[in-house]
Structures are given as structure tokens and as C-alpha cells.
Design a protein that fits this description.
8-stranded parallel sheet; TIM Barrel; alpha/beta; 312 residues; disordered N terminus; 8 strands
Length: 312
């Protein structure tokens, strides 16, 4: 299992409740992916170039700065020691990183690099895939671990019956830790499976520890949706989860080469429609600050460069 983090171990999420607003207001991109060497999931992504180009903190930093964002949450699905060691190195001298979510799979060997990461206070959560979600013992173990160490649990899931059943079972557990569903909670791209998904989301919305990331808008199947359909989906999430349990995430760089970071934000803004600024600020940072317990802006580069990346 992943080693104990440097969090206090207080399993209470009282200071993450929807009624608690951080005094410091930051804008946070709640979902980016970075690497020195392209991991297998990047090379296999159907829309992504799949090359070996590096995407580093110093690449995302100027993009965030130009768009008046203060930091980002790095989410990694890789479990290799090389990748984890690189992330731990970044976390020890963080640039633009407000937190890190690391992947875990059953029977994963203990990683010294994750231990290093935990000691930086940037370890904010654990990521599991839908295969782990279907394993009742594994999902229970990792969810309780998150609660004991003040971490979130992120579940990247497909909208299959087995995955939806696993989500409901996990949300029904007596575990006090945020459960975060990225990429529009795995909404089906077409009509098949949408009825079951919709009913599951309505049930999960009744659990105050469940949050949704409005991410993957230009990298997932919903990138092809007409704007009216995307707006309808956003309205569904707002109606059932409220703005205080929703977060913006770019999923950069997976939107490349067709869509720069800024077009991901534009797609999000269009989907959200006309809303008061105070409403928007929850999705653009306040919710992420509360869920990931962010109390200060991460360091930035004084003179950052894109190094030729068309990704602003």
C-alpha cells in the first residue's frame, strides 16, 4: 500500500464542507497531466499525438500565469518508479503545482518516491481506475486509507454497470473522505447507458463527499457535443451537485494539438453560460482549495518560457 502521508491523519473533512469558504481565493486548474517521458496511456490516447515530447511544470506555469490561474493539480495514472521519482523531484521544488494525485493499483509495491512525495505536503489524493473500482476489497481499502491520511480519492471510471455499482457502494460507505469524479464523471458519449448513469449521479449527488470535475472537455468524447448539449449537462451537474462541489480541469496536454489550454477554458466558460462571478469562482478555484486543502499559491517561474509548445 502507499505509505502514510505527512497529513495530520485527521479523518474529518469538516473544513472541506460546502459551507466553508477559503479566506484566500486562488484559481486552480484541477486536472493537468505532466511527464518527462510520455507514459503508455498518453501514447495510446486516441486524440493525443502520442509522441515522446516532455510536458513539464515549466511548460504549464506560463500558461496558467497568462490566464490568471495560480496553480494546478497534477494527476498521474502511471505507477512506474521512474515516473513517480520524477514527480517527487518536481514536488520538492514545485513550480505551479498546488497538489499531486498519484495512481494506485492492488498489490502495487511500496514506492520510496511516493513516500518522498508525501513528505512535501503536495500529495493530495489517490487515483484509481474502473478495474480497481470493481474490486470491492481494493476500493474499500484505498478509500479508508485516504480518509485516515486526509486525502481525496479520484475515480476515473467508464459508465458501465459494474463501475456504477462500485461508485454507489463506495459512496455508501461510512468513510469521511472526498470522492472526486473527473472528466464529467464518465458521462456516456451517446444514448447507450445514459439512463443508468443519470440515476447513479442523482444518487451520488445526495452524498456530500462526492465532487465532480468538469474536465476533459476538449480531450474526451464530449468534445464533439453541440454546445447546447454540453450546457444541458452542466446544468444537470449544477442542479444536483451545486457549484460548491464542481471544479474546472483542463486535462492539458491531452487536448493538444487541436485545442490549446485556453480553448479548454473557453469551452468550460461556454458550457457554464451566464453566471455571477461569485458562482464561477467556486468552480475555478474555491472548491479545489477546499477539497485539496490548498492554503497558499504555489511558486511560479520568474521568467517562464513555452519552449515552442503551442499550448496557451
Amino acid at each position: 500500500m502507499i505509505p502514510a502521508s505527512s497529513h495530520s491523519g485527521d479523518s474529518s473533512t469538516g473544513d472541506r464542507s460546502v459551507g466553508t469558504i477559503p479566506e484566500l481565493e486562488l484559481r486552480i486548474d484541477a486536472h493537468v497531466c505532466l511527464w518527462q517521458e510520455a507514459p503508455p496511456e498518453a501514447r495510446a490516447h486516441p486524440q493525443f499525438p502520442g509522441d515522446d515530447r516532455a510536458y513539464l511544470p515549466r511548460h504549464i506555469a506560463p500558461i496558467l500565469q497568462r490566464n490568471r490561474f495560480d496553480g494546478a493539480i497534477l494527476v498521474t495514472a502511471g505507477t512506474s518508479e521512474v515516473e513517480l521519482a520524477q514527480i517527487a523531484e518536481w514536488a520538492e521544488k514545485p513550480i505551479a503545482l498546488a497538489g499531486v494525485i498519484v495512481a494506485w493499483k492492488p498489490n502495487l509495491p511500496l514506492s520510496p518516491s511516493v513516500d518522498r512525495l508525501a513528505n512535501t505536503n503536495l500529495l493530495k489524493g489517490i487515483w484509481i481506475d474502473d478495474e480497481t473500482l470493481r474490486d470491492a476489497a481494493a476500493r474499500t481499502s484505498v478509500y479508508r486509507y485516504c480518509a485516515e491520511n486526509g486525502l481525496t480519492l479520484e475515480v476515473d471510471t467508464a459508465a458501465s454497470s459494474g463501475a456504477l455499482n462500485g461508485l454507489r457502494a463506495m459512496a455508501d460507505q461510512d468513510v469521511d473522505a472526498p470522492l472526486v469524479l473527473p472528466h464529467l464523471a464518465g458521462v456516456p458519449a451517446d444514448g447507450e447507458g445514459q439512463v443508468a448513469w443519470t440515476e447513479t449521479m442523482k444518487q451520488l449527488a445526495q452524498r456530500p463527499q462526492v465532487y465532480v470535475k468538469l474536465s476533459g472537455l476538449q480531450s474526451g468524447p464530449t468534445r464533439q457535443w453541440p454546445l447546447a448539449q454540453l450546457q444541458s449537462l452542466f446544468q444537470f451537474f449544477i442542479q444536483h451537485f451545486t457549484e460548491k462541489r464542481l471544479m474546472f480541469g483542463s486535462d492539458w496536454p491531452y487536448s493538444l494539438p487541436d485545442h490549446a489550454w485556453k480553448t479548454c477554458l473557453a469551452r468550460f466558460t461556454q458550457g457554464l453560460g451566464a453566471r455571477p462571478q461569485a458562482f464561477r469562482e467556486h468552480l475555478l478555484g474555491k472548491t479545489a482549495m477546499r477539497v485539496y486543502q490548498i492554503s497558499a499559491a504555489p511558486p511560479q517561474l520568474d521568467a517562464a518560457t513555452d519552449e515552442g509548445l503551442s499550448s496557451s
